[in-house]
Design brief:
By secondary structure, this protein is mostly helical. The chain has one domain. Helix content is about 95%, strand content about 0%. The protein is built from two helices and no strands. Helix 1 runs antiparallel to helix 2. It is elongated. The N terminus is likely disordered.
């Protein structure tokens, strides 16, 4: 029974890591909508949301990079 629990935990760990990637894709899609509003319609509030979204994307990308590096180096 404990082996099954370990497998479940490993599955959840992989799922959580992919959740960040999925979150990043969704965030990018929302930034794209605001970017269109800013560039095509001149909506300055959308420009503010684009700047915030891009900062969030940067931070999320860095977190993913750190996880990948940690996972890669732990296998050695």
């Amino acid at each position: 029974m404990s082996i099954h629990v370990i497998k479940l935990d490993l599955f959840n760990l992989k799922k959580n890591n992919m959740d960040k990637f999925t979150k990043m894709k969704n965030l990018f899609a929302s930034v794209e909508v605001d970017a269109s509003k800013f560039y095509n319609s001149g909506n300055s509030a959308a420009g503010t949301r684009v700047r915030k979204g891009m900062q969030d994307l940067k931070n999320l990308a860095q977190a993913i990079r750190n996880e990948v590096t940690e996972k890669k180096n732990s296998g050695k």
